[in-house]
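Format notes (please read before filing issues)

Several people have asked whether sequences and structure tokens are stored in separate files. They are not. Every record keeps both together, in the order shown below: the sequence lines, then the token lines. Line labels are part of the format and must not be stripped during preprocessing.
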Amino acid sequence: MTRDVGRGLGLRRLFARILASASVAAGAAACSSQDTGCPDAQERALVFDLTTRTETCGDAADAGKASDASDAGDAGVPKDAGACTCEELCAKVQGYSVRTCRYLSATQLECTAAPPCLGGRKPEGLSVPRLPPSDRRTAFLLGCAHMEAASVIAFARLADDLEVLGAPAGLVVRMRAAAGDEVRHARDVLALAGDHSMPVVDITPARRKDAFTIALENAREGCVRETFAALVACRQAASARDEAVRTVMTTIAADETRHAELSWELASWLDERLDDDQRRAVVRAREDEARALRAELAARRLPEDTDLGLPGAAEAVGLMDAFVRSVVVAGGRTTSTSSMSWAG
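Then the structure lines:
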């Protein structure tokens, strides 16, 4: 499977089969509000007890200052918030970009996260973006534009590391070309979000990586997250009711499918440079990341949107289950006996 996908022989056909699969529809139908493995239909704000948190940020002189996105209400802003604004605290405690936040009391914070963007390859050291107050759809698009912009850096860094490792010149060139694709994606998705500026891409300095470190990162960000994002992009390209969205996503879906194939080709090249223990660790990383992504889809639902062509909550989980069976587990079995148990 790894070699087939890497040669561009598998993903397009696999995606078409997954999207048309009756098993996806069956898996989606099996989800209900009583099933804890599937997301519910309502967006939920999360409440955090600040007395149990240790997050700090900013300048101590700014402690307790509420951001424009916060609503202190009658409870007032706590004076011991560790120099974080309401928005900064929400981003730190929940790990997602913030859509709304407010203090319920001096010790309780209520946060609503922007829906997670699946697109792009996240570089190491990327900070959660600070998004302006907006509706859920705009927040989703801004988050995606931010991730596409961050992917430019991820592919450029990966190309540099592979060049140092002596990777084939063609592989390095295609990584740099992928970075160029992501520049276009960021601009196009930002345009769909309307009159907004690109969220700042805040990232730590790069560090040189060896083959094993790159293989682990590629397993998570390329073979799982970017590949699944390509599948969802194909769904959007085929289903978006908004013509502008459909046009943008048709190009992005083709590019991201090619990037996903590139991730699997890289996995194959790196596999030959690892020992048996490292290969098994890469397979485990792929499987663990798939579980984590499924949990995120269940807990932090995509905003079902017919104009954007995004799947509903249950369908997204069903797509993920089909993706794991068809791609992740099958790919893992090329280098070791996969022990992954997946209940779809």
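For reference, the curators noted about this record: Residues 136-165 form the longest helix (30 residues). The CA atoms of residues 64 and 79 lie 5 Å apart.
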